[in-house]
Design a protein that fits this description.
Helices cover 45% and strands 17% of the residues. By secondary structure, it is an alpha+beta fold.
């Protein structure tokens, strides 16, 4: 199921369109959150640079990730606070 959702919305590593259904959006956001290393902090510039690799509207992606608690922001510092952790 997750790979079906990702295949539909992420092509060639880029987000084609953000799903409107929350359950599918969470799968996509979890996939994107994997680009951030748990336990590491990121400056906003670095978060934007990573997210720009997924979609041109990196600010919207950043808001989605923070709103859905995949990333936490304090000041201009971000860290991964959710999502699947692979071993």
């Amino acid at each position: 199921m997750d790979t079906d959702v990702l295949g539909r919305f992420v092509q060639d590593g880029r987000l084609v369109v953000m799903p409107t259904k929350r359950s599918k959006r969470l799968i996509v956001l979890d996939h994107i959150a994997q680009a951030f290393e748990p336990g590491r902090t990121y400056a906003e510039y670095d978060v934007n640079r990573v997210l720009h690799g997924f979609h041109d509207d990196y600010a919207a992606l950043r808001r989605y990730l923070v709103d859905e608690q995949f990333l936490t922001r304090e000041g201009n510092v971000y860290w991964r606070s959710g999502g699947t952790v692979t071993g």
